[in-house]
Structure formats: C-alpha cells, structure tokens
Amino acid sequence: MFDSILVKPDQMYSLANVDADGDGVIGLEKEEAKKAFEKLNKKLESLQELMYAEGKRKLLVVLQGMDTSGKDSTIRQVFEHVNPQGVKVASFKVPTPQEMAHDYLWRIHQRTPGSGEIVIFNRSHYEDVLVVRVHNLVPEERWQKRFEHIREFEKMLTDEGTTILKFYLHIDKDEQKKRLQERLDTPEKHWKFNIGDLKERAIWDQYQKAYEEALARTSRPWAPWYVIPSNRKWVRNYYIASILVDTLEGFKMKFPPAEEGLDSVVIE
Ligand code: ADP
Predict the structure, then answer these.
(1) Ligand 1: centre distance to CA 217 (Å)
(2) What CATH code is carried by the domain that includes residue 35?
(3) Which residues are paired to 87 by β-bridges?
(4) pTM of whole model > 0.85?
(5) Quick check: CB of 194 below 6 Å from ligand 1?
(6) Which end of the chain has the least Cβ crowding within 10 Å, N or C?
(7) Res 154 pLDDT > 70
C-alpha cells in the first residue's frame, strides 16, 4: 500500500517531481481521512501499550524535513495518545562542544530505543549529510563516507532487534513560504520564527539535492525511507499513523503471561 512513497535503494529521483499535495494518493476525502486517522490514533495507543507491556521490541522513528515541514506537529498529533513512559523524543540541534568533540554518531547511539520503547528522532544523524554538506561544515571526502557508515549503523541496530522507519516530510517551496508567513503574522508563533530559516530557504535547491542523495543511498529494506506528502497535515498524519500501525501490528506482540493462580486471588 505504501510502495508509491517508498524510496527504492540507490534509485535517484527528483523531489521536485513528487507532489507534496498528494491528497489523491490515499484515495480518501479530507473528512474521511481525518476520521480514519482518529481510529488509527486509538489503535496506536493500544499497540504502544502492548509494546511497553511486552518489553521486547524497539522502534526507532526518524523524522526529517525542511524547516516548517511539520516535524513538531507530527509528533504532537500522531503520538497524541501514547503513554509518555514508553515513548521518547530525541531532538538533535547544532552539536554542543562535547558532541562536536566526538564522532557524529556518538550522540545518536545514546538515544536509540531500549526494549519496549518507541523513540522518535526529531532531526537525526542525517543532518550530518544534509546541513553539514550544504554548509561545507566538513570536507566532502568526509561526509561522502557517511552514507556507508549510516547504512552499517542502521543495519547493526536492526540486526540487534530495532525496527527503523524513516519519514521525510515533503513540502514544496510555496508551502514553506505560507508557513513562514503565518509564523510572522501570528504573535504566538513568533517564537518559532527564525531569521536563519530564510538563509536556509535561499538554498532550498541545494538542500533538495542533498536530501535526494541521502534518501536514495540510505533507504534499505531494513531501514526504509518514506517520502510523505506533507503540504496537507491530514494526509501526512494519515500516512504516518498507517505505517506505524501496520508496523506494530506486524510485530504480533503479546501481553506477558499472568502470574499463576490469579484466578483465586481475593483482594481484602
Ligand atoms: P528545529 O528547526 O528542529 O525545530 P532549531 O530551530 O533549534 O530546531 O534547529 C535546529 C538546527 O540544528 C537546525 O538548523 C539543524 O540543521 C541544526 N543541526 C542539527 N544537527 C546538526 C549537525 N549535526 N550539524 C550542524 N547543525 C545541525
């Protein structure tokens, strides 16, 4: 069902040709999709509880996207009902001096999920082949090698029992303009407005090129990239919740067995 948005290993394509509106792909009208999303949200809630109770599986969800693509609101809306005990968000910002003193995967590995946990990466190690590349923060011969490191790192995580899903929230440049303008026009959103985002917007094409290469070179069956049409939040939410529910259902999890003799327990 999600094949059309799955990035095939090493198959380069142009993001400019991917429709960020993409409302027709799921074949639902807005109101239908919102209702379906509510149902998926409830399912996600019980599946996550089951996952936490079972305490075996580990799920890593990577969120990447251009500024204003909706990483924060995806986390808020898709994970609205889950139990914070079993779900963590790791946000990766400009590395601290201590992080800079280590290899780029050092800070990442520490935040990967433990048994029974879902961890959502709000930005990730992919910044180290995106912003780092676009701004020449390290020489090309260094970041070029990172695609291989990242593939191997993710392979190791999955070999050791972590399931990885990676979502690129795809908006187009017009949509970003609208969202930035809205932030500028709404005093309650000023805290989200970063003058620096305008500099990044000016090199939109360079970012898209960096994304295209990163997605193609690191999408693998064990750690796939999905390009999520994200101009419309209800389309984005529906896709992400569907893929999460599908994945968790595929785990075939079970509640741990009850202690023996529970049926004869009397609570005084
Ligand atoms: P966000 O945009 O994620 O809501 P911020 O506005 O604080 O949060 O932006 C975080 C910034 O940190 C982004 O500009 C991102 O490119 C940058 N960043 C993240 N990881 C790295 C990295 N490894 N090297 C350089 N910059 C990074």
Answers:
(1) 22
(2) 3.40.50.300
(3) 118
(4) yes
(5) yes
(6) C
(7) yes
